[in-house]
């Protein structure tokens, strides 16, 4: 479709005209401008909603909202074209078969071997070994070999040694969807563990001997402690309501030596609405400070993030400080349980705060334990009530921790944003389907590529320059402040206003430091080469003239500690380096270096909406975002005056 | 007056000091004329706390049996608690602190007693003279002149003795204009934009009154800053209604009929007690220690503090936009021209002028646009957020300015030579200091108090190399561009470095700062090494050639 206008959300004045293309996998908008011809690519799988608005004189507006928080506002001249685009997109954005998804057609030009290597990058067996199991207390169980006991669990599962197959099967019959207690994290230092399950089918009075034995076995696997915590991550009211349906929670009287604890994290429906409310605030055209803060508070989003974090902190404390094992569950044990177990693991074990470890963590607590990626993130057309930003919340928890512990994580914010992007993009096979079983049936590993290999290949872009493996923050357990520190939880504009570059800091400290570190590395290499050359020269000259070489030794020492400003590498060069960096632009650069995922044709959704220089966008922000507006300057003079003043808003 | 008279109990033992995020420490408390000193001599943890009495904003006392507790709330927003055994000692100490922290005579303040332990390399009192500023200006334009019309502070008591005005306006005209402007604050040059020769002037409101008085000299003065055929903007920091009401009290605004070349824009900036209330509410919210602090965001919102920040930044950006983008000259004023006017003109300079983003340049800006321009520091900063005295002239005007600078700094972290600590330092010293810099309300008062002779300047201390190094931003790279900050709510954040400074764990953030410094330092060292080696190798190679020739 030609002559389509792409509107800038912040200013109706700044629109670009171009051509809209629909392909099998992408919506592509190409600007008409002769020199730049900037392109905006959006994957169909990223589209979360399409809204056709009332036709106006200029054309028919089409609003596309994406799951990665991009909002695209198009105006199509002909109503009929608009309707066609709308109908096609509705169909394209809601695939019904897995085979329609992008990952089955995406080809990064890797051979078969490289693909297989890619899938081997994250190996859960290796991970359990790293944790220290199997050992005297824990063993691998093959009870779920053919998904016979629980179809949403993986085949390989770690259970206490004293839990026989009989106990496991018995316990599984007493748990929602047969998700029996299994090991999520084992703490080598003190034998304490984090186990996970679904809710027990206790109703008002039902008991199950095998389930009681199962919990007993978990306690015995930690000989240093005489009880375990059972953490129900639901609000108490929700858990009680479940009893009427024959489900519920553990009765402390029936289980020996457990301490039962509710931690009120709301369910997926509350979270979905909360995100919706927050996004509405983000989308406000020019909110006042009050609109924004009120909206953010009313959405409840940060409160929910804090609840998840508090649960994680509680568990991490129990394991690290008290040495007590914890069994975590919610209803089905695949949403809140996954969030809480992974936050706790992240706090407990520095390994998960490395790039590789973080991939392992997601693979372990989310992918292998049957988090329903397909349902939650709407990859295939399905029940909209199943959709909820569960893993988004976990990713945000990590970001909040990164803000509090800037040196503790090996990866940077961009890493998190790209993972979030690909959970929805369906470009890689990792997050397809709802369980391991379904993925095996689809032969994901033979037919698609792994995201982890892709991220690993580009790991230089995702490094946190402040991370040092020997830094105190990278050792041991993280202890975030819990007490009265609500104010430590901040709005993440880097994620939710990700595509509005104008709102972000114009210079990125991370990118700057990364460029400096890169240069440092080059300098180190050069230094080595130079020293070698020097040694060779000295050797060859020392025979000639001993006195002379002595002098040179002295001059060398002198040289090492003198700095000279007029040297070849003046700081000016950093800014040139910076320009080539993919993310946010430094001040000197122009703004069109958006978040780039394009290394291998992944033009999925990089919105280069802002072609303007820093200065332009600065002015822009100012005039259309201020409540009273640079544009409508109140003055006692009549229309003439305000007409004239409008140019200030330009 | 002898301070000793006020100190009934100069010393108390076995006092316990409580601070957030610190273990309680036991030690000895001493009171001197200007300080509260707490020292603990425990072997594992010897430490001393020195607190200026003038830093104390409020003090509360309570008793449990004979154990007294006093809670001291400081102007830098810190709160400490002292447990003092013995009711009498506690009462004495509390009343002494109260008396010593509210001395009403300026000359009894600590700066008049402070004897520096460092060698003065450069006297800060003469570091930033307007004459030097004018010299710089003269190198790019000759349209301006220095006027000494206010030599004896006779024309305008709140102006410095010398000011910069358009060359074509003589002193006689200035005297007439002064009579037409509130408090005699006639329009003077605030900033000259080299790039396009546009000027930013500041003044107070014109005294048009209800009958629309005019002053030909005033019109001539401000028109002198316009290029022929071009227009200028008057940015009035009051809403139109307030400006109109001001006419009833003799004030007013520039009427279009008399200033046809000027376009007036009203950009409302909140002032006085509204700001003070915001400040108090915000600090209250930040100090709320209750565990279920659910409504943090609504408390933040209710304080309106960030709204003021947003308004102020927007007004400053607008002024900068008029000058840089529209190529127009600008006149900024509110009512008196000593508060919101100065906020706008100084922030606009941060945006426009790279020099103001250096340490030295920022100091010069504070001196020029705040101290010399007659911002009444002593009135505005007499009390901070904990005080019960609700004087209507107290307002965190300067703090708001510093926070706006911080907001811009956060968006352009590589464009400022100074770091956040420097801004915090200025906040502290504006409220309580051993230096005389922020005493008095204007240059005239400072001259009468003989501050340059009798007290030490903050700049004499800060500009020593060993102090300066603490305030340098390791990421700084001179950026010659105009920097346009975003004023969207998503882009503005609470200034944690001031408001949460004492109630957040800061260790991890400090470690990160250290790491940043180390990365840059190591890089610079390597550069030096590599270059030295390169040079050495080059020398050896040429030597080798010489030898070979021999």
UniProtKB/TrEMBL annotation, chain A:
User: A Gene Ontology molecular-function term?
Assistant: phosphatidylinositol-3-phosphate phosphatase activity
Chief subcellular location equals: cytoplasm
**Where on this chain does substrate bind?**
267-268, 330-336
Q: Which residues form the active site?
A: 330
Give the Gene3D superfamilies listed for this entry.
Answer: Pleckstrin-homology domain (PH domain)/Phosphotyrosine-binding domain (PTB) (2.30.29.30)
User: Is Zinc one of the keywords?
Assistant: no
GO biological process entries: phosphatidylinositol dephosphorylation
GO cellular component term of the entry, any: cytoplasm
* Coiled-coil intervals: 513-540
How does the protein associate with the membrane?
A: Peripheral membrane protein
Bias class Polar residues marks the residues at 562-588
Please state every residue range assigned to the domain named Tyrosine specific protein phosphatases.
299-343
The record's listing under PROSITE patterns reads: PPASE_MYOTUBULARIN, TYR_PHOSPHATASE_1, TYR_PHOSPHATASE_2
Q: Which family does it belong to?
A: Belongs to the protein-tyrosine phosphatase family. Non-receptor class myotubularin subfamily.
Q: What is this protein's record name?
A: MTMR7 protein
Q: Which organism is it from?
A: Prunella himalayana
From TrEMBL, chain B:
Q: State the name under which the record lists this protein.
A: Myotubularin-related protein 9
Q: Which CDD domains did the record assign?
A: PH-GRAM_MTMR9, PTP-MTMR9
Listed GO biological process terms:
negative regulation of autophagy; phosphatidylinositol dephosphorylation
GO CC, any one term: cytosol
Q: Where does it reside?
A: Cell projection, Ruffle membrane; Cytoplasm, Perinuclear region; Endoplasmic reticulum
Keywords of the record, alphabetical order, are: Acetylation, Cell membrane, Cell projection, Coiled coil, Cytoplasm, Endoplasmic reticulum, Membrane
| Membrane topology (UniProt) | Peripheral membrane protein
Query: Which Pfam families does the protein's record reference?
Result: Myotub-related, PH-GRAM_MTMR6-like
Give the coiled coil ranges. 509-543
Q: Where does the record place the Myotubularin phosphatase domain?
A: 124-499
Q: Which PROSITE patterns match?
A: PPASE_MYOTUBULARIN
Q: Name one GO molecular function term.
A: protein phosphatase binding
Q: Which family is annotated?
A: Belongs to the protein-tyrosine phosphatase family. Non-receptor class myotubularin subfamily.
Lineage, top-rank taxon, reads Eukaryota
Record keyword tRNA processing present = no
């Amino acid at each position: 479709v030609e002559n389509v206008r792409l509107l800038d959300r912040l200013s109706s004045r700044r629109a670009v005209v171009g051509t809209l293309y629909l392909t099998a996998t992408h919506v592509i908008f190409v600007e008409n401008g002769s020199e730049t011809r900037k392109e905006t690519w959006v994957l169909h799988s990223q589209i979360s909603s399409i809204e056709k608005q009332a036709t106006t004189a200029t054309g028919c507006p089409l609003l596309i909202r994406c799951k990665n928080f991009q909002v695209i506002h198009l105006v199509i001249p002909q109503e009929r074209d608009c309707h066609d685009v709308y109908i096609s997109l509705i169909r394209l954005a809601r695939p019904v078969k897995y085979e329609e998804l992008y990952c089955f057609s995406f080809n990064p030009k890797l051979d078969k071997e490289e693909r297989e290597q890619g899938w081997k990058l994250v190996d859960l067996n290796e991970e359990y070994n790293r944790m220290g199991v199997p050992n005297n207390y824990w063993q691998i169980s093959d009870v779920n070999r053919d998904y016979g006991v629980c179809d949403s669990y993986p085949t390989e599962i770690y259970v206490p040694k004293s839990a026989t197959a009989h106990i496991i099967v018995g316990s599984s019959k007493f748990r929602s969807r047969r998700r029996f207690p299994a090991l999520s994290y084992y703490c080598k230092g003190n034998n304490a563990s984090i186990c996970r399950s679904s809710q027990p089918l206790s109703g008002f009075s039902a008991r199950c001997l095998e389930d009681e034995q199962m919990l007993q076995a978990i306690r015995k696997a930690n000989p240093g402690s005489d009880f375990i915590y059972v953490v129900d991550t639901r609000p108490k009211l929700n858990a009680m309501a479940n009893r009427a349906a024959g489900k519920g929670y553990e009765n402390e009287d029936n289980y020996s030596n457990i301490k039962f604890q509710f931690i009120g994290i709301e369910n997926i429906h509350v979270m979905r609405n909360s995100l919706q409310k927050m996004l509405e605030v983000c989308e406000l055209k020019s909110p006042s400070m009050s609109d924004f803060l009120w909206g953010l508070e009313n959405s409840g989003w940060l409160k929910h993030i804090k609840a998840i974090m508090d649960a994680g902190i509680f568990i991490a404390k129990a394991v690290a400080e008290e040495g007590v094992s914890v069994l975590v569950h919610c209803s089905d044990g695949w949403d809140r349980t996954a969030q809480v177990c992974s936050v706790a693991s992240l706090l407990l074990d520095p390994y998960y705060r490395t790039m590789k470890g973080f991939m392992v963590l997601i693979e372990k607590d989310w992918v292998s334990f049957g988090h329903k990626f397909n349902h939650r993130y709407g990859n295939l057309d399905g029940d909209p009530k199943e959709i909820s930003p569960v893993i988004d919340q976990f990713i945000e928890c990590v970001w909040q921790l990164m803000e509090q512990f800037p040196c503790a994580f090996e990866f940077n914010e961009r890493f998190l944003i790209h993972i979030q992007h690909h959970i929805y993009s369906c470009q890689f096979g990792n997050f397809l389907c709802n369980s391991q079983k379904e993925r095996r049936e689809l032969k994901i590993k033979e037919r698609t590529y792994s995201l982890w290999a892709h991220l690993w290949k580009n790991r230089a872009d995702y490094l946190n320059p402040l991370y040092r493996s020997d830094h105190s923050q990278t050792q041991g357990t993280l202890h975030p402040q819990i007490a009265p520190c609500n104010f430590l939880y901040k709005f993440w504009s880097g994620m939710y206003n990700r595509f509005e570059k104008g709102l972000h800091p114009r210079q990125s400290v991370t990118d700057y430091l990364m460029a400096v570190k890169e240069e440092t590395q080059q300098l180190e290499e050069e230094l080595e080469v130079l020293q070698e050359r020097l040694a060779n020269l000295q050797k060859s000259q020392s025979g000639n003239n001993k006195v002379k070489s002595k002098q040179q030794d002295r001059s060398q020492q002198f040289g090492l500690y003198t700095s000279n400003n007029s040297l070849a590498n003046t700081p000016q060069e950093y800014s040139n380096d910076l320009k080539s960096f993919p993310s946010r632009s430094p001040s000197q650069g122009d703004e069109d270096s958006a978040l780039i995922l394009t290394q291998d044709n992944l033009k999925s959704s990089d919105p280069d909406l802002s072609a303007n220089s820093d200065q332009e966008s600065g002015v822009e922000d100012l005039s259309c975002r201020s409540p009273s507006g640079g544009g409508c300057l109140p003055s006692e003079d009549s229309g003439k005056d305000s007409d004239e003043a409008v140019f200030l808003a330009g | 007056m002898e301070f000793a008279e006020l100190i009934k109990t100069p010393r108390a033992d076995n006092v316990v000091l409580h601070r957030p995020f610190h273990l309680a420490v036991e030690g000895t408390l001493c009171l001197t004329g200007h300080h509260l000193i707490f020292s603990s001599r425990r072997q594992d943890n010897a430490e001393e706390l020195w607190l200026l009495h003038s830093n104390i904003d409020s003090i509360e006392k309570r008793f449990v049996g004979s154990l007294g507790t006093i809670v001291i709330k400081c102007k830098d927003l810190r709160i400490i608690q002292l447990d003092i055994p013995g009711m009498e000692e506690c009462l004495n100490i509390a009343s002494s602190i109260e008396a010593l922290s509210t001395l009403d005579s300026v000359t009894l303040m600590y700066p008049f007693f402070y004897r520096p332990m460092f060698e003065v390399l450069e006297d800060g009192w003469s570091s930033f003279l307007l004459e030097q500023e004018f010299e710089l200006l003269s190198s790019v334009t000759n349209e301006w002149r220095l006027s000494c019309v206010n030599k004896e502070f006779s024309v305008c008591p709140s102006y410095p003795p010398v000011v910069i005005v358009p060359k074509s306006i003589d002193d006689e005209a200035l005297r007439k204009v002064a009579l037409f402007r509130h408090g005699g604050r006639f329009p003077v040059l605030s900033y000259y934009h080299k790039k396009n020769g546009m000027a930013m002037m500041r003044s107070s409101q014109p005294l048009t009154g209800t009958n629309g008085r005019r002053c030909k000299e005033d019109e001539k003065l401000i028109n002198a800053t316009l290029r022929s055929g071009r227009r200028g903007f008057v940015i009035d920091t009051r809403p139109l209604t307030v400006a109109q009401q001001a006419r009833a009290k003799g004030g007013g605004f520039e009427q279009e009929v008399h200033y046809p070349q000027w376009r007036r824009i009203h950009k409302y900036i909140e002032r006085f007690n509204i700001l003070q209330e915001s400040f108090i509410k915000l600090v209250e919210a930040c100090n709320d220690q209750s565990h279920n602090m659910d409504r943090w965001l609504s408390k933040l919102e209710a304080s309106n503090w960030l709204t003021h920040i947003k308004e102020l930044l927007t007004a400053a950006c607008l002024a900068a936009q008029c000058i840089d983008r529209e190529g127009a000259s600008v006149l900024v004023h509110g009512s008196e021209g000593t508060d919101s006017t100065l906020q706008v003109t100084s922030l606009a300079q941060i945006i426009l002028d790279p020099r103001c983003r250096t340490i030295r340049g920022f100091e010069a800006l504070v001196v020029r646009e705040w101290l010399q321009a007659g911002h009444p520091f002593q009135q505005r900063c007499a009390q901070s957020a904990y005080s019960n005295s609700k004087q209507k002239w107290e307002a965190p005007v300067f703090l708001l300015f510093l926070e706006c600078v911080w907001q811009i700094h956060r968006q352009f972290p590589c464009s400022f030579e100074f770091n956040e600590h420097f801004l915090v330092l200025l906040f502290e010293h504006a409220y309580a200091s051993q230096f005389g810099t922020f005493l008095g309300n204007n240059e005239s008062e400072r001259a009468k108090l003989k501050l340059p002779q009798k007290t030490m300047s903050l700049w004499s201390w800060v500009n020593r190399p060993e102090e300066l190094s603490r305030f340098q931003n390791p990421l700084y790279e001179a950026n010659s561009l105009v920097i346009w900050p975003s004023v969207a709510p998503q882009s503005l954040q609470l200034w944690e470095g001031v408001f949460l400074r004492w109630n957040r764990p800061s260790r991890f953030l400090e470690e990160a700062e250290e790491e940043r410094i180390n990365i840059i330092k190591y890089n610079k060292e390597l550069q030096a090494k590599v270059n030295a080696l390169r040079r050495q190798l080059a020398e050896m190679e040429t030597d080798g050639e010489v030898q070979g020739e021999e």
